[in-house]
């Protein structure tokens, strides 16, 4: 397990982790390590307690057995405790250490260097982490290196191989927060972790849309087929330090048929110890987990494991995964005999960001993602006692697609290491917000294999459903309720799936950080969602859901605003969605063909509502029966 702090739910993330994990920092660290080795025995001054993170992410700076000259601290309470395998020493003992070099484990270290100058051994060279800073041209906030906006980064599963291509679609939403001259620094890795290409891409000055297409990248750099990962670093960002995107997988130009049409959400840039929501294969399927090393250090053999959820019998991967490399893990090979509706847990030891998985069946494939399994959560008795002011409390909404064509399946997924049971109910609504059915699932065990088909529980033609906590027979909750949603086309055989977590929706009253807001403190009672447009005969769509924990506005006041690739609004359409209801949105039905043509490549629809918080799912459909679906992102 990498001893690193990555994501903090309260703070939103650990900027130091991103600074140490950046590949350019790793390359600069090799030069720094060479300088330290030439200087002689090294002592480490660790003012902020990051020695273990250095040992995990940049081990060359620490040496094989740690700093020969010891690790020093100024906190008397820490003296004698272990850090990175060594007993910590007092800073005042540094002059007698015999060290010929001192590494100060801090960025922006000028003031620290001045403060400890009397403690540096005579004649010793002094270094700091400022030697591994990113180039000044890549910094958004030059005055403070560890500002989160300096590390607006994310990984993308990127492939152009075997007749399948990938396309990243997003918008320059940073412009809406005052950013100017935003550009992307991009680096593409192949399956072995080798760098295939590196380039920059300027974004529109206003909130315009943009794409990064694997076929265009191949053509630009003269590349052969590849499956790997793309690192995206936004420079000049404002407001958000998260790189949000939709990623489409689609048939390459010249490929026969529409064997795949999938969409997944952004990768979530914070590595986790465990991930959940990985489905076991059906008898006629293969499930491939795409394992992608997110760091510049190898993943040792016996580190990565798959386990049937709740079994506590992990099967380990007995091979090393090189830095930034990609490996395809066949679930059935690692866990023979485990089949749907069983669930799989990935033990990743904080080496990877949220991985993708691929389901292969009847010559077709679909791509989806697993989710972070929280290690910091415990069951919270307060959730069972939420006041009536919060109504039904936490809701997990998902679409029920037209039953005349689609089969909708839901499977609750454990998403916290401490979770042992899950008390749930399923409420089903028609588009006008009428609750048409309610089904008590019971208190599900961690190792449950429950997967429910909505058409067996309700006769609604289409609409949406919500998973909610139900404590009638006991059970515990932690507020991190997740589920997998699977959609199967009875006519074409295509399928799509998505997963997400619960929130409190549309109440004026708040509980802790719920209802969450896109920007600012709770309550979150507004909507700003991104819907890309279709292309090459594929029509985009969205299912907008108006979930309400307690009664709220009777109807939404939703604007669908068509933008062109430069971010200019072209046309607007309105929707009035019923409270606890839903609505299908097809841009080609809401806007004229002329306006959609003007929007062009990179155009998009901004879904805006200041009266309520909508939740949405989006995708693409084609005439061959292919379709994709995943949850939308807001900004």
Can you give a write-up of this model?
- The protein is mainly β and 635 residues long.
- It has four domains: 15-132, Rossmann fold (3-Layer(aba) Sandwich); 148-264, Hypothetical Protein Tm1070, Chain: A (Sandwich), CATH 2.60.290; 274-352; 381-631, no CATH class.
- Helix content is 10%, strand content 36%.
- It contains eight helices and 41 strands.
- The strands form nine sheets. Strands 8, 9, 10, 11, 12, 13, 14 and 15 form an eight-stranded antiparallel beta sheet that branches. Strands 5-2-1-6-7 form a five-stranded parallel beta sheet, covered by helices on one side.
Radius of gyration: 25 Å
Number of domains: 4
Average pLDDT score: 95
Task: Give the biggest sheet.
Answer: 8 strands, antiparallel
Question: Which regions have little confidence, pLDDT < 50, spanning 5+ residues?
Answer: none
Q: Would you report the number of β strands?
A: 41
Q: Total number of helical segments?
A: 8
Q: State the secondary-structure class.
A: mainly beta
Give the percentage of residues in beta strands.
35-45%
Question: What are the SSEs and their pairings?
Answer:
Layout: H1 15-21, H2 23-39, E1 42-45, H3 51-57, E2 71-73, E3 82-83, E4 86-87, E5 89-90, E6 101-104, H4 110-116, E7 125-128, E8 152-161, E9 164-171, E10 183-189, E11 195-202, E12 209-213, H5 214-221, E13 226-235, E14 246-251, E15 262-264, E16 274-279, E17 286-292, E18 305-308, E19 315-316, E20 326-330, H6 331-334, E21 343-347, E22 356-361, E23 364-369, E24 371-373, E25 394-400, E26 406-413, E27 421-429, E28 435-445, E29 452-453, E30 463-469, E31 482-489, E32 495-501, E33 503-504, E34 527-532, E35 539-545, E36 558-563, E37 569-575, E38 582-585, H7 587-590, H8 593-599, E39 604-609, E40 615-621, E41 630-631
Parallel strand pairs: 1-2, 1-6, 2-5, 6-7
Antiparallel strand pairs: 3-4, 8-9, 8-13, 9-12, 9-14, 10-11, 10-13, 14-15, 16-21, 16-24, 17-20, 17-22, 18-19, 18-21, 22-23, 25-30, 25-33, 26-29, 26-31, 27-28, 27-30, 31-32, 34-39, 35-38, 35-40, 36-37, 36-39, 40-41
